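Figure 2 data, in text form.
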Amino acid sequence: MKQNIVSYEKNKRELKILLMQIRQDHRVAQEEHESFATYAGLDKSQIEILNVFETPSFDETVLQGYDSLWVGGASEANVLHPELFPFIADSQRLLLYCCQQNIPVFASCFGFQLVVLALGGKIVDSEAEFEMGTIPITLTDLAKNDIILKDTDNNFLAVSVHKQKALELPAGCELLAQTETCLHIIKVKNKPFWAFQFHPELDKSKLIERLTIYKDSYTDGNEHLAEVFSAAQETPESNVLMKKFVDRVLLGQSYCRAKSRPTG
């Protein structure tokens, strides 16, 4: 058992992740990097950054030497306006390349929307009424057999803040979770490729920190902001999803399997 644990930790330390960031605010970019590392159970040095505002043009060679591509959220960009954000086209091409080459992908929020568009789906505006805060996520029956979600409780809480959304499942995908408002987790069939409209990498404290910075974009002022904070709850089942992805997909083993291995 001890030898298996040592081997597991060694393999985990050798993982290298490329995180695509869509952030102009330095504080949020740093916080996002730290949050991904924390909830993935990795050292921050194992996650290197491709900030598409700084590098708007790139191709699949940026993935050389990495075990997985992760994609974060955005507050300064809109997937529906590629004419304003030239990195959107290359981002979608990179995601398609990962899909074709079976490179594991974990995409969050803006990353979810990029995935939907890359796979031929549709994203619509929801600026008049959008999700903001910690909300319950409803699993579909397909989630029972998903390697990441199979032991996740239905209607678990997650941080969700977004003004664009997907209403229809792209071809070749499975719908694993949704809310009354929109789709929330999709997986490409037979591929190690997941996308989450909510933020698995954000918890209650980081939601408060993030919305305080972006309150002018997402709230109607301090009173509205205080209401969102008052209603916010902890999101432990959402926050463990990244570690499950690392353990079960990137390292190819589940928690229960690692615990049940015999000694010797």
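Caption note: Residues 29 and 238 are 21 Å apart (CA to CA).
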